[in-house]
Amino acid sequence: MPLKILSYNIQAAIGTKAYRQYVTRINRQVFNSKVKTKTLTDIAKFISDYDIACLQEVDLGGRRSGFKCQVDYLLGLSDFTHMSMQENRIIGNISRHGNAILSKHPQSNIRDLKLPGKRMGRGAVISRIDAPKPVYVLNVHLSLGEADQMTQIEYLAREVPSDVPLIIAGDFNCTATSRPITALAAALGMTSLMTPKDKTYPSWKPRKDFDHMLVSSHFMAHDTGAVDVRHSDHRPIKASLNY
Asked: Measured at the alpha carbon of residue 137, what is the angle toward residues 133 and 139, in degrees to the nearest 5?
């Protein structure tokens, strides 16, 4: 059976669906609401079709999520049974930014990686997924500028395990043909599954391919690409992997 994996920047369930809503829905950056709970419920239902879900921009218990960890909420409403997470940045009592990996198989060897950069607050989490054949999954959310991205790519290339089935997925904030993506693939001997056609941002009219998935030579991939789902300002990406 193939391993079905998803990567999704869920924007803390704010649910932006137009540029103007970054302003008109600014209150959702600060306060929780029933609408956000409904969005989280919809996300939980959607991601349940996958064996592994790498999630970025999850709120881990700030005021904007009702002081409740969104990872716990998603775990409770979905078919996932295991999780790992890491926190990147805390803004007062308003928000706690983080990344998470949800899986239907046990996780071990979990590491919280704080990414270097001129502006701190980005991170990654790596976990061994003990599927029938174990795999390592690295979930990343890179900074916005290429200089920081290259520093972060170099750091990640040093930190990941070698000679193991490895999947790297996340919001890279750069395109498939960019220097950071090509450098990471070259440094680790991995294949980038997404192409410039797999545009994910903004979700309502995608123009940028910011979300990516790379795999080691252990895998054969099919059914890859962006998914037309609009619970966030990003669209998710998916792949089915045989190994």
From this structure: 165
The helix/strand count (H/E) of the chain reads as 5, 12
Question: CA-CA distance, 69 to 224, in Å (whole number)?
Answer: 30
User: Tell me: the pLDDT tens digits for 12-42?
Assistant: 999 999 999 998 888 888 888 899 999 999 9
Nearby residues of 28 by Cβ (< 8 Å), 6 or more positions away: 14, 15, 35, 36, 64
The edge-to-edge listing of strands for the beta sheet with 52-59 is 82-91, 95-103, 52-59, 3-9, 237-242, 220-226
Q: Which residue, chain included where needed, has tokens 């979905």?
A: 78
Q: How far apart are CA 84 and CA 2, in angstroms?
A: 22
Domains, the chain, ranges and CATH? 3-242 (3.60.10.10)
Q: What is the mean pLDDT of each run of 10 residues along the chain (243 residues)?
A: 96 93 86 92 97 97 92 95 95 92 97 92 96 96 96 96 96 97 97 97 98 98 97 98 96
Q: Which of 185, 236, 195 lies closest to 215 in space, CA to CA?
A: 185
Beta bridge partners of 107: 129
Q: Is 9 helix (H, G, I), strand (E, B) or coil?
A: strand
